[in-house]
């Protein structure tokens, strides 16, 4: 009865639009009261859920991303990418994807990409004469590359929940992220030919060199983060601290584009974002503890394994569950709830936790591009002044290549595991 009440209250809260963290806390509190457990258990488990050293990476990566946006470094990245591929038909579409790949190595969050770099991209594409559907669609689709290419906030959460190496997860995301970018480039090429989009500028090695010199220091950010982690020079948490200091150095000392007021605002934004994420993790930790205590994961595993033990088929079924959850639940909350539920099944059939983490995160990223949650779509609707319904329609065609990449990653795990096996064997 208490377990049924747990799910019922959670569903009712979500329907009523209650923030997900509060929904988790209320449903968990109801369970504790019905079971006659001490109420202090709720606070103890919530605090324990966020008492983890790797989670310290989250505020620092968020801070670094806000600093890059606030210092105007995204403009330099965009201009550099435009100088390279702006000579192609529909060139700003390629620039959009390329900029997102570069920015992914700095922010680790799709919403940060959409809200910061996305504003720059859509403004430039409108000025060049592109229609809003194409501009918003490719901006939304390319923004979810951010959490796949390291660093990645969802990977940090997954690594903590699954007790898996965050360094391996970061390394595993490189090839899938580049595959996502490649698939979107093919879609841009197809639409550009079909709609006869213009060439934005002529290619000039002098122009490329000019913008490269302006962007070289921001471009070093992903090299520092990924190179440091893969080489073993520092942990992901230490990489996040280095990224923040480097972004701060660029904004205050090199480009002098950050003022004291900007720094205060960025700090406040970082605190607000970090607080909301940690509150979600804390609430979901209690919810996950209840599921574990009631052996829900074992029941789910036994039921699924009676149907099949083939790793690929099991992973497809798991991804179906994840996709459904991702349509209605925020990414961090979904990871915190799903990992304890899915890990026993994955380990039983021999699915590597790193492989599971990458495909799970990519799957949840697709939920950011679909209603009713669709956080990236809401952000882009706000910054572009395009109605939410039109954003949904504009983005739908770009889901096709991303789903194909997800299927390939499920069927061929070596795509995901190639770099981790090379550097962490």
Describe the structure.
This protein is mostly helical and 425 residues long. It has one domain. Helices cover 80% and strands 0% of the residues. The protein contains 22 helices and no strands. The protein has helices spanning 2-15, 20-35, 40-50, 57-70, 73-85, 91-104, 110-127, 132-143, 153-162, 166-172, 174-195, 205-231, 236-254, 260-293, 296-307, 311-328, 331-349, 353-367, 375-384, 388-396, 399-411, 413-423. Helix 3 (40-50) crosses helix 14, helix 7 (110-127) packs antiparallel against helix 8 and helix 11 (174-195) packs antiparallel against helix 21. It is globular. The mean pLDDT is 83.
Total domains, how many?
1
Q: For the residues shown, what is the average pLDDT?
A: 83
The oligomeric state of the chains shown is single chain
Distinct helical segment count: 22
Distance between the termini: 47 Å
- What Rg is obtained from the alpha carbons, in whole angstroms? 21 Å
- The total of beta strands comes to 0
Structural class: mainly alpha
Q: What can be said about the biggest beta sheet?
A: none
Helix content: over 70%
Given the C-alpha coordinates, what overall shape results?
globular
Low-confidence stretches: none
Beta strand %: under 5%
H/E series? HHHHHHHHHHHHHHHHHHHHHH
């Amino acid at each position: 009865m208490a377990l049924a009440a747990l799910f019922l209250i959670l569903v009712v809260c979500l329907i009523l639009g209650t923030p997900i963290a509060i929904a988790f806390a209320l449903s968990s509190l109801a369970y504790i009261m019905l079971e006659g457990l001490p109420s202090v258990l709720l606070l103890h488990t919530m605090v324990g859920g966020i008492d983890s050293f790797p989670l310290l990476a989250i505020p620092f990566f968020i801070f670094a991303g806000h600093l890059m946006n606030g210092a105007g470094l995204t403009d330099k990245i965009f201009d550099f990418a435009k100088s390279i591929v702006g000579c192609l038909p529909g060139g700003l579409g390629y620039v959009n994807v390329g900029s997102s790949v570069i920015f992914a190595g700095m922010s680790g969050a799709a919403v940060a990409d959409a809200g910061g770099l996305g504003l720059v991209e859509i403004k430039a594409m409108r000025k060049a004469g592109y229609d809003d559907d194409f501009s918003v669609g490719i901006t939304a689709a390319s923004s979810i590359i951010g959490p796949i290419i390291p660093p990645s906030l969802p990977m940090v959460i997954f690594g903590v929940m699954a007790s898996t190496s965050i360094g391996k997860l970061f390394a595993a995301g490189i090839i899938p992220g580049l595959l996502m970018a490649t698939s979107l480039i093919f879609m841009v090429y197809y639409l550009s030919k079909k709609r006869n989009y213009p060439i934005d500028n002529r290619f000039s090695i002098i122009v490329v060199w000019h913008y490269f010199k302006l962007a070289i220091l921001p471009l070093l950010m992903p090299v520092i983060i990924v190179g440091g982690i893969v080489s073993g020079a520092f942990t992901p948490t230490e990489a996040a601290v280095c990224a923040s200091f480097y972004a701060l150095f660029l904004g205050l000392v090199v480009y002098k584009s950050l003022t004291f007021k900007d720094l205060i605002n960025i700090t406040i934004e970082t605190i607000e974002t970090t607080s909301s994420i940690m509150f979600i993790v804390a609430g979901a930790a209690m919810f996950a503890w209840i599921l574990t205590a009631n052996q829900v994961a074992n029941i789910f595993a036994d039921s699924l394994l009676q149907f099949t033990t083939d790793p690929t088929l099991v992973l497809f079924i798991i991804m179906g569950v994840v996709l459904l959850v991702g349509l209605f639940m925020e990414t961090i909350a979904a990871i915190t709830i799903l990992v304890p539920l899915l890990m026993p099944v994955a380990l039983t059939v021999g699915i590597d936790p790193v492989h599971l983490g990458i495909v799970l995160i990519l799957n949840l990223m697709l939920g950011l591009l679909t209603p009713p949650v669709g956080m990236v779509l809401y952000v882009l609707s706000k910054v572009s002044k395009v109605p939410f319904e039109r954003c949904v329609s504009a983005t739908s065609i770009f889901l096709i290549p991303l789903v194909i990449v997800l299927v390939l990653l499920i069927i061929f795990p070596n795509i995901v595991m190639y770099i981790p096996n090379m550097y962490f064997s």
